[in-house]
From TrEMBL:
Protein name: AN1-type domain-containing protein
Amino-acid biosynthesis keyword on record: no
Keyword Zinc-finger: yes
InterPro entries in the cross-refs: AN1-like_Znf, Znf_AN1
Top-level taxon of the source organism: Eukaryota
AN1-type domain span: 38-77
Biased segments, Low complexity type: 18-30
GO MF term list: zinc ion binding
Region described as Disordered: 1-36
Alphabetized UniProt keyword annotations: Metal-binding, Zinc, Zinc-finger
Organism annotation: Caulochytrium protostelioides
């Protein structure tokens, strides 16, 4: 039986640990540079100011910026919000014939 030197055994253990790949030392994915593209996949640049949908928070080009144009997942919520916002105005302008 041969005795193993404790310092050599410790060095072998640390070498074995450092040779195994770990998820913390993996290379990060490269950051995409350049203007953001339309979320629909048409390949056009997203419009900076009006290209972000306020209902689904995705970026779109000028052609797809409206909720109806990009089939927004929150389109019904958009419609309900618009109706609630304009309901008092519609009722106030309602024409009612006077009774004689």
């Amino acid at each position: 039986m041969s005795a193993v030197n404790p310092s050599v055994a410790a060095l072998q253990d640390t070498a074995a640990l450092s040779s195994t790949p770990s998820s913390s030392t993996s290379t990060p994915t490269p950051v995409r540079k350049g203007p953001p593209k339309c979320h629909t996949g048409c390949g056009e640049r997203a419009v900076k100011i009006v290209g972000t949908c306020r209902y689904c928070s995705a970026n779109f080009c000028s052609r797809h910026r409206l909720p109806e144009a990009h089939a927004c997942s929150n389109l019904q919520g958009c419609r309900d919000e618009s109706i609630a916002k304009l309901e008092h105005k519609l009722i106030g302008e309602k024409c009612v014939a006077s009774k004689v």
